[in-house]
Design brief:
mainly alpha, single chain, 77 residues
Length: 77
């Protein structure tokens, strides 16, 4: 069995933390690590930004001209 790695634990908790699915103890543990680890804090901000981008990208309608260009690029199977 390997040694405890707080960054590995934080990685496991990252998505549930962002989903607000952790209990109070787990949330406090994740926040304490994020407060002290620059690497994991950067990962957290990246994941958080990615979620915001995806929400925005999924809500925007694709322009008709872009749809037509993409359709023209399709190759028959």
């Amino acid at each position: 069995m390997g040694a405890y790695d707080p960054c590995e634990k934080c990685e496991e908790m990252m998505q549930p933390y962002l989903d607000r699915a952790l209990d109070e103890r787990e949330r406090a543990e994740a926040e304490q690590h994020l407060d002290t680890c620059g690497y994991c804090r950067k990962r957290f901000h990246f994941e958080e930004s990615l979620r915001v981008f995806m929400r925005l990208a999924c809500s925007e309608q694709m322009p008709a001209e872009l749809k037509a260009k993409l359709a023209a690029l399709r190759t028959p199977l």
